[in-house]
Q: What sequence folds into this?
């Protein structure tokens, strides 16, 4: 048999259920799928293939899974940092979203995000935003895999001036994209229990269920949300969502910081999933999610970067490092959130959190060939006693050399093959120059 | 006048006392010193120079200052993570230090550290370890600037089998290195108030004072240290050190986590300095240093990575990102530790913390030409509304393109000019293979 691609001469971190690590590994790919993952033998020639990729002694692993993003927010990266949350949102983010988001700017902002993600080893993202049709077009163009949800919110939103259209609009997006490409999985992104009324939450979940979609929702993110739901619904955000039927195995709770023990039990019982976004939670001073307790309770927790305005990057390697360290100091226990646990969060558990675990998240025969190769011939990756430790505590997105999604090579030798990066950077720079000028004129900054 | 080097076509972040940022900046260097820092004029030719460096629209800034490292510990990077502190130290780090540290391994481990630091934009490090003579040889060879202290501890240590020789040995190191090179500043590194008896602490400080040196000491790092000093000395670590005369403007308190309000006041009053190492403190679950309170009290706080065994890298860009985010979530206030404050910690405040603020830490005429240039033509650095925000929240060590120390170019186009990187990586890999084999045989891992 002649494979499409054979990758060899690398250490394979499979992320399979036995957490097998294969030295001098060989990965065989055909028609976008993984066919064989095995140890190479020095006395045996390599399997035949149309293309042979030498990993040069580096690490071969599944691409990373970013379970929560707002891709077009790259446009507002670093626009206004270190501010109180309400000032940041009311004076900068909301006005900029209202004024500067158009189908065209959303597309170029998403292309920028895809470029950043691919170049730093992310092969799947789960997004929720507005103008999601344009997000999807850009994601599709880049070749990255995406679970994409049109936003539902009870306020006028970019592209949805009349909130009463919000669910209809989200369903229209789903119907348009549900059969376009195996790489695009539509979803519904309900903004939060405090920006959507009970009726909207119920209708959005019903629409999501009727089509078997992932239902994404920000919940239990901030103390003010917690206080507000307590005041209005006389219970916690999670118990409120549970009471109105929002929680089941297709629900992805994003953030999940303000949780009590009963909330954790409910999430576990409903088999809902959680997206953990530690860097955003730290930067916005939202709090520390009880991730070790969630995992102990059996909840599937994936890792996410959140949007670029609150992080300010989409690099999951930095996010893994932070996730591992934050919980140690928070619980004053250096043994929690060990490197293996965190690596799983960013791969197989993340895939499960967004409903794609049958297809991606590990290197196993039959799964999609979403593979990345890291160059480990760098001072910060030497010596290497324990490769998984290096992936969490010292590897960087910039160590990623090659990236493929469904067997299609998107990054080769650190060069992005699918997009015109120079053109994207130039267009975003032009737009940001305009935004900057306008903000200065209005004396906001 | 013909300068030695002129850098142009970049955004200069001067870090001078007015925090001037100069667009289209020009930096003129002669005899290792900064001569002029000014805005370029389009109608005027560039100043004449032996070498012209085009920053290509990137960022030109002072090199970063790492105020706390144990350079040779690169050799133990990732050797044993996610363990309880005592197990990590007693079963792995201490035995490995005892068995595998020799003058030769210390030299190669230090060369690896210098390579990593230079390639990620650090131009000055403050180190404390054993076999410091060999550390100094390697630092000198690399061309990086260093404040280097031979370790003083009341236990048999690598290279100092008899603790009664500890101070004599440290002084011998100082005398040997104090006039070798303007790039090497000797210091004394007293390990901690719980590993050195009162007599040792006093003698070491006296020796340090007699030569006008920086006196480095780990203090108030862990709860167990705090409890022990409380039990033995009936006061806090800082008050104990103050009582025995260890604290003055030449003292660098490393970590400074377990501090009460009085401790902070004492540190401020004595004008002692603090080295903040957030990633190490998180990974080892030591706690969160009250850095915003220290800064408010007027204490000079620099940033440090700590050794590679507890971080696991020497990248100050990652450390800045973490410092900015950790305190926000810890104090539940998104406005603390803003980007400018953190950038100062990693440059001018760091320089002040280790006694070099008259020479380095900012780009100002008369100071040493320790300069780095960042390539900002990358997806994660676009758009750029606020360059300082990007340096803290999204720039990576790998964005550093050129590095010079005292006007000598050490990194050009991401290539290290002073060291044979391939040889260093090979030697460290060989040594780590041996260590790994030995540890496996003894069934420790």
A:
């Amino acid at each position: 048999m002649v494979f499409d691609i054979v990758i060899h001469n690398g250490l394979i971190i499979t992320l399979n259920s036995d957490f097998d690590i294969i030295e001098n590994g060989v990965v065989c790919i055909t028609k976008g799928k993984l066919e064989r993952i095995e140890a190479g033998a020095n006395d045996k020639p390599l399997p035949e293939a149309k293309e042979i990729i030498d990993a040069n002694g580096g690490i071969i692993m599944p691409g990373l899974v970013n379970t929560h993003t707002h891709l077009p927010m790259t446009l507002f990266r670093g626009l206004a940092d270190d501010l109180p949350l309400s000032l940041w949102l009311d004076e900068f983010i909301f006005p900029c979203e209202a004024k500067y988001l158009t189908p065209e700017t959303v597309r170029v902002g998403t292309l920028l995000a895809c470029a950043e993600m691919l170049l730093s080893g992310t092969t799947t993202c789960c997004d929720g935003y507005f103008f999601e049709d344009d997000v999807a077009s850009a994601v599709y163009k880049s070749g990255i895999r995406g679970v994409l949800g049109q936003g539902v919110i009870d306020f006028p939103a970019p592209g949805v001036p009349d909130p009463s259209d919000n669910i209809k609009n989200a369903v229209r997006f789903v119907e348009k994209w549900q059969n376009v490409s195996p790489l695009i999985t539509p979803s519904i992104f309900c903004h939060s229990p405090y920006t959507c009324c009970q009726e909207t939450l119920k209708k959005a979940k019903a629409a999501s269920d009727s089509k078997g979609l992932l239902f994404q929702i920000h919940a239990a993110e901030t103390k003010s949300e917690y206080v507000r739901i307590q005041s209005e619904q006389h219970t916690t955000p999670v118990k409120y969502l549970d009471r109105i039927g929002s929680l089941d195995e297709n629900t992805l709770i994003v953030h999940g910081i303000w949780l009590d023990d009963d909330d954790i039990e409910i999430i576990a019982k409903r088999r809902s999933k959680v997206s953990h976004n530690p860097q955003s939670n730290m930067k916005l001073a939202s709090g520390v999610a009880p991730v070790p307790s969630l995992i102990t309770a059996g909840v599937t927790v994936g890792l996410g970067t959140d949007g670029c305005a609150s992080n300010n990057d989409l690099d999951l390697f930095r996010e893994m490092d932070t996730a591992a360290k934050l919980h140690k100091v928070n619980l004053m226990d250096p043994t929690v959130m060990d490197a293996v646990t965190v690596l799983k969060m960013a791969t197989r558990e993340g895939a499960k959190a967004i409903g794609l675990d049958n297809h991606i998240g590990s290197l196993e025969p039959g799964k999609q060939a979403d593979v990345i190769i890291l160059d480990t011939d760098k001072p910060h990756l030497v010596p290497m006693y324990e490769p998984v430790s290096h992936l969490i505590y010292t590897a960087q997105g910039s160590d990623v050399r090659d990236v493929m999604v469904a067997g299609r090579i998107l990054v080769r030798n650190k060069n992005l093959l699918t997009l015109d990066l120079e053109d994207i950077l130039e267009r975003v720079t032009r737009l940001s120059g305009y935004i900057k000028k306008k903000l200065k004129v209005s004396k906001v900054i």
Observations:
- Residues 441-445 of chain B have pLDDT under 50 and may be disordered.
